[in-house]
Amino acid sequence: MRYLLDTHVLLWAAEDTLPRSARKYFSEEHTLYFSSASLWEIVIKRALNREDFQIDPRAFHTALIAAGYLELSITSQHALTLESLPPIHKDPFDRILLSQAITEKMDLVTADAYLSNYPNHIIMV
Fold first, then answer.
1. Which pLDDT score, from 0 to 100, does residue 119 have?
2. According to DSSP H, which parts of 24-69 are helical?
């Protein structure tokens, strides 16, 4: 299976603080993706001095690639898929992650309860 990991799940994995419910997605039988939107989110929230985003984005990117995660860049199709999403969630980072998951036919692994209101492509951990 292929999974797109949301930013907080990626940060938990980097800090080795994954909740038990998320660990089963981190096995060799699954292909794990991270979005360029997650790095964008980290850069922006780090600049705002958010305490939960104080990781070096360049080092984080290097570590993700070294650990075998695959990068998913944002495409025009991902942006266009946003148009079909109901306005349940307002966070632009989470919306583009969901749009990417829908477009690429994979599930988004997240702990964001707002995203669980979307009917498909969401795995809550």
1. 87
2. 36-47, 57-66
Residue 62, domain extent: 2-124
Taking only the tens place, the pLDDT of each residue in 55-80 is: 999 999 999 999 999 999 999 999 99
Q: What angle is formed at CA 43 by the lines to CA 78 and CA 24, rounded to 5 degrees?
A: 65
**Rounded CA separation 88/60 (Å):** 30
Number of domains in the chain: 1
Looking at residue 20, what is its pLDDT? Answer: 93
CATH of the domain at 99: 3.40.50.1010
Q: Which residues contact 11 (CB under 8 A, 6 or more apart)?
A: 42, 52, 53, 55
Location of structure tokens 């603080």: 17
